[in-house]
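S1.2 Input.
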Amino acid sequence: MLLSELVLTQKKHTKGKVYSMHAPEAECIAKGKAHRPYEFGVKTSLATTAHGGFVLGAMACPGNPYDGHTLEEQLEQVHRLTGPMPKRCHVDRGYRGHGVNPETCKVLIAGSRKGLSRVLRKEMKRRPAIEPEIGHQKADGKLGRNWLKGMQGDALNAMLCGMGHNFRKILAHLKRLFALLWVWLLAAVPPHEPAAQAA
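S1.3 Output.
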């Protein structure tokens, strides 16, 4: 069936609706937020460090899958890119029923306190820190609007946005380091005293 015929024949409850003629892979993603209940595009999965917010993995998830079904693949990407498999992973409640082997990686779901030590409960407070990182990538890193074509373009855009996010963080750290070095150098150099002249 042609794309134009599919657009003309689709109904309210049709599965696999076409929301965009120039990007037929775009889907309707329910966000559950009052100010923006729906977004149109392709779901992206991000993995960041608990401290620092550096992106360890970013991938497009076509087909609008359930969040829990994307976790194992995301952890495999992190393992492939960084080397070691993470020992612990902090996720929100949308990742229930993830199916990740607890011997491979211990998955800690937000809100669960049963059998957790005080250190792990404190560590779990870092999970909401990923939300501003996603916001920065959408606003500053072009993750909110993909200009690359097709499903391959979606995958490339996710990875490039993650890389750009890390570069911005590194540059911000270097800027602070150079500012500290400059202050230290100014404090180390004695002030210049004008030479006295006698006539």
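S1.4 Remarks. The chain has a mean pLDDT of 87.
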